[in-house]
C-alpha cells in the first residue's frame, strides 16, 4: 500500500484529451462522487502534453490511485498512453467525434497491442458512467462499505424499472 495523506488521496484518476471532453467525462466524476470515491480529473493530451501526463500519473500513484479512466476522441491514443505508463487498471471511454460519431474513437481505444490492456467501454456518457462503475466494482472487492453501496445502487436501478409505466395509447 502506498503511504499517502488521506486528505490528498485520490483513488481514481480521470483524464481526458481536451476540456471539451468534460461534458462526457463528468459522468465518471459524478458516479465517483455519488459513491464517495475520491478522484482527480484533468485535461491532458497524449500528444500535446505527454510529459505533464506522465508526471500527473506518477503523482496520482503516489497519492494512492488505484485505477485510471481515460477519455479521448478522434485518434484516441490517450488511454493507450496512460496504460503504457502504469500497471494499474485503465478504463477507456471513446468520446463522440464530429464526423464519425465516436466510431473512430472506439476503434482506436479498443485496438491495444497484446500486453498493454485497456478495458474499453461504450461511446459517450454511458461509457463514462460505466467506466466509473467498473472501477468502483474493482475497489469494492476489498471494501465492504463500497460493496454495500454498489448493491444498493443496483437495487435502486431495478426498482426504477419495476415502477416505470408506459404512456397510454391515443
Automatic annotation (TrEMBL):
Catalysis performed (reactions): 5-carboxyamino-1-(5-phospho-D-ribosyl)imidazole + H(+) = 5-amino-1-(5-phospho-D-ribosyl)imidazole-4-carboxylate
Signal peptide interval: none
Sites where the protein binds substrate: 18, 21, 48
A molecular function (GO) term: lyase activity
Record GO biological process: 'de novo' IMP biosynthetic process
Top EC class, one word: isomerase
Transmembrane stretches, start-end: 67-95, 115-141
Cross-referenced PANTHER family: PHOSPHORIBOSYLAMINOIMIDAZOLE CARBOXYLASE, PHOSPHORIBOSYLAMINOIMIDAZOLE CARBOXYLASE CATALYTIC SUBUNIT
Stated family: Belongs to the AIR carboxylase family. Class I subfamily.
Function of the molecule: Catalyzes the conversion of N5-carboxyaminoimidazole ribonucleotide (N5-CAIR) to 4-carboxy-5-aminoimidazole ribonucleotide (CAIR).
Protein name per the record: N5-carboxyaminoimidazole ribonucleotide mutase
UniProt gene name: purE
